[in-house]
Design brief:
The protein is built from no helices and 26 strands. The termini are far apart.
Length: 235
């Protein structure tokens, strides 16, 4: 005959009649809750949890974290998203520059492969790591130094550029070079590879790699003559 009042928050009643409302404690789960007047209990939604039986609302996970099932009953079920790291249920921080994290959870951010870097923060993919200047390889590594006689001035997966397509024997560069100015004349040559080109030393003379002038060509052992000039057998 009434009066009838709604079941309190945290309780439910699925049938008609005068029976009392039942507390939400299905399977002793502490994550089950319901609004006032409910006919059944509702599990906490993904991204929320509830640690005690009662009428309280479910709590949201910390920023940049979420749960991965409904009905979570502990803050520790909140996992940091990919690109973030931190303890389960705790504060999550962005992966710093040069690192990435492709999975959710408390694992540390992984460092980019050797000789590669990612300039931003919060990376979720190894492929965000780009080979440094002077190195080449696929995004995500491995990265290898540009071979002698080549250079690469930018980050990424582009191939290294040859110092000279015309005469690779006369021009070289140290492995891992990052600029065309690293290109130099090979041993036995002199000049400027980016301007006049490299010229061979006179017969029976040689020079060190990187020589700029004809006078850098010295007579070989057993020969004599002026620097850069004709060399003759020692008497």
């Amino acid at each position: 005959g009434g009066p009838c009042v709604p079941c309190a928050a945290g309780t439910y009643k699925g049938s008609t009649g005068s029976a009392a409302c039942t507390a939400c404690s299905l399977a002793d789960s502490s994550s089950i809750t319901s609004p006032a007047g409910s006919t059944k209990c509702q599990p906490c939604a993904i991204g929320k949890y509830k640690q005690a039986i009662g009428p309280q609302s479910c709590f949201s996970c910390p920023a940049n974290a979420t749960t991965y099932t409904t009905g979570s009953s502990a803050a520790s079920e909140c996992k940091c998203n990919a690109g973030y790291t931190g303890p389960d249920g705790g504060a999550c921080t962005l992966c710093p520059r040069g690192t990435y994290k492709s999975t959710a959870g408390s694992a540390a951010c992984a460092a980019c492969p050797e000789h590669s870097d990612y300039g931003g923060t919060g990376s979720v993919l190894a492929s965000d790591c780009k080979c440094n200047a002077g190195y080449t390889g696929p995004d995500g590594g491995p990265c290898v130094p540009c071979a002698a006689g080549t250079y690469k001035g930018s980050t990424g997966s582009a191939a290294c550029t040859a110092c000279s397509l015309a005469d690779s024997s006369s021009i070289t560069s140290p492995a891992g070079s990052t600029n065309v100015i690293d290109c130099e004349c090979s041993a036995g040559y002199y000049g400027s590879p980016t301007e006049s080109g490299c010229q061979a030393c006179p017969r029976r003379s040689s020079s060190a790699a990187g020589s700029l002038a004809l006078s850098d060509c010295k007579c070989n052992a057993g020969y004599t003559g002026p620097d850069g000039g004709a060399c003759t057998l020692c008497p």
